[in-house]
C-alpha cells in the first residue's frame, strides 16, 4: 500500500501526533480569515481541521484514507469533509484559502501528477486566494538501510504493543525516498495483526517547483524555510513552505 494510512498506521499516528505543534498551527492559521472558505486536502485525522473548526473557521477537508477520516469524525462528527484521493478530486466549489501540511505534497512522485495537483488547486481558488503547502527537501536524504529496524513502539489504549519497523532506499536520479514499513500489533508475544506500507516521498531542491507553479496559473510565490516566515531563506532547510497567489 503506497502512501496510504491503514488501520495500524493510523493508530500509531494518533498516539504519536495527537496535536499539531503550536508554531506550525499558527503559521497556517495566519492565512485564515473568518467568513472565508478554507479547504485542506489530505487532511488525515484532522490535526489541523479540528483546531480550525473549533476556532469557528469555515473549513472542509478531504482524504483518501477511510481509517484516518473515521478518527476525524470521532473528534468532530459534524465537520465538513469527504473521502477522495487527489487524483479523483474534481474542483466544484471555490475556496479563499487552500493548504496542504506536513510535506504531504511530497507524496506525489512524478511531475505530471504534481502539475495536475497544482492546476486543481488553482481551479479551486477564488480570485485573490492563496495556496500554501510544504515540501520535503533533499536535505532529508537517508542513506539506504537494507534491513528492517525498529523505529518506534507504543502502547495502544487496549494495552497492546504497536511496533513500527522500516527500511529505506533513495533513488538519487528521481529524488525519491522510499520507506517500506511494517506495523505489528502484539499482545505480549502474540502477534495480533500486521500491516505493510510503502511510503515514498519526492524530495526537492530549492527553486525546483517554481516553473510548475507558474505554469499552473499562479502569479506570485513566497517561499519560507521555517514557520516564522523569516527573511533569511535557508536553501539547505529540510522543508520549504510555499505561499502561492492567483
From TrEMBL:
- CDD domains referenced in this protein's UniProt entry, alphabetically: AdoMet_MTases
The biological process GO terms on file are:
methylation
* Keyword tags: Methyltransferase, Transferase
Single GO MF annotation: methyltransferase activity
Quick one: signal sequence residues?
A: none
Q: List, for all copies, the residue spans of the domain called Methyltransferase.
A: 38-129
Per its record, how is this protein called by name?
Methyltransferase family protein
